[in-house]
Specification:
The protein has about 375 residues and is α/β, with parallel strands linked by helices. The chain is built from 8 helices and 19 strands. It folds into 2 domains: about 300 residues, no CATH class; about 50 residues, no CATH class. Strand 1 and strand 2 form a beta hairpin.
Length: about 375
């Protein structure tokens, strides 16, 4: 196995863009900057949960991050690059029969380095976790971010997050989930980056009665280009997979959604559904939705749909007749359209940060 080097921190200060989000209302959080945990505020409910940085794992436990058990299905150049060049990592391990009621918040910050982040989340049998991630960078950088989530029998994960990367950055995000018998994963992620972004979410339903939902909210603006692909692959019978995409393209930006529901041969009684909804604001903006169903079995339920267009004129007229300006009416409609992500933000400050970002990108 190759050796790894974690670069020392220049300082342990919390960047202002994160500091403003840490209020008295925020409980149970970790701030990870350039490969180092600089803040760890967790109450006793997390006493039995292992949360270990890549730095803390060196040298004898590093194989935990790179172990290919369960996760050998996904092959992609950017993923391989992450494994070979990772300079920051986090392991979250929830023991068997452990229910964590409170949310775990992890803030990942790139400040001085091009970040190659690898996060591994393992939920043992009958365990449950609510995980929230906030991804951002202080200065322009290249970002390669990977999470591998392993959910064993009857484990339940609520995975939510917000990505806010800077304009001149190049970002590659890969989120993989591997679900065993009766496991449930619900992903809700808001992508409000200004960067060039490629993001892949892959859900592998490996055993019977596993269920996965991947929900993505994305906003593009200016000359930004962003591409989001969601794959839910049914590798066992009686599994359920749902894909939901909500997008807003403004100015001269390009936003692409590609949802893939794949039911392999003999995976009977499986359900694959997906929906794509989008609003095009700019005259020169473009929003593409490519819903795909790859079905190799007859005894299944599958559907997909896409609805892309401008803001409804009747809705605008109604709101403006109540005294709202055109811009305020548009923002109100867009905020309602993007409401799926607001439901999973745990504090008012996080909600206000999201709404403020939406208003900036749709101005």
């Amino acid at each position: 196995m190759k050796s790894y080097e974690i670069l020392p921190l220049k300082n342990k200060e919390i960047p202002n863009k994160i500091k403003s989000l840490i209020t008295e209302d925020l409980k149970n959080y970790i701030v990870m900057k350039d490969g180092h945990i600089i803040v760890r505020e967790l109450d006793e409910s997390f006493n039995n949960v292992t949360i270990m940085s890549y730095e803390e794992a060196l040298p004898d436990k590093i194989s935990v991050f790179l172990d290919t058990e369960f996760v050998n299905d996904y092959k992609e150049e950017a993923y391989d690059y992450n494994v070979e060049n990772v300079n920051s990592g986090l392991l979250i391990h929830v023991p068997r029969n452990t229910y964590i009621e409170k949310d775990l918040h992890v803030f990942y910050v790139s400040e001085e380095i091009d970040l190659v982040q690898n996060t591994r989340i393992v939920l043992e049998e009958n365990s449950e976790l609510k995980y929230f991630e906030y991804l951002t960078n202080v200065y322009d950088a290249s970002i390669n971010f990977v999470t591998n989530t392993i959910l064993k029998e009857n484990a339940k994960l609520q995975y939510s997050g917000v990505s806010k990367f800077a304009k001149n950055s190049v970002v590659m995000v890969t989120r993989n989930a591997y679900l065993k018998r009766y496991a449930t994963a619900k992903y809700s992620v808001a992508e409000i980056n200004d960067s060039t972004t490629i993001s892949n979410t892959n859900m592998y339903l490996q055993e019977e009665y596993a269920s996965a939902t991947t929900k993505t909210v994305a906003i593009t603006s200016q000359h930004q280009e962003a591409n989001f692909t969601q794959l839910v692959e049914h590798q066992a019978k009686d599994t359920e997979g749902y894909i939901e995409n909500y997008g807003v393209a403004n100015n001269s930006s390009t936003l692409v959604f590609e949802g893939i529901g794949k039911i392999n041969k003999d995976m009977k009684r499986s359900i694959a559904r997906q929906s794509n909804k989008g609003i095009v604001l700019g005259v020169n903006s473009r929003l593409d939705a490519n819903p795909l169903l790859l079905i190799d079995e007859y005894d299944v339920v599958a559907s997909h749909g896409a609805a892309i267009g401008k803001i409804d004129d009747d809705q605008l007229y109604y709101l403006m007749s109540r005294g709202l300006s055109l811009k305020v009416a548009e923002r109100l409609i867009i905020s309602g359209f993007l409401s799926p992500v607001l439901k999973v933000l745990s504090t008012d400050v996080l909600k206000e940060d999201f709404i403020s970002s939406v208003e900036t990108k749709t101005a």
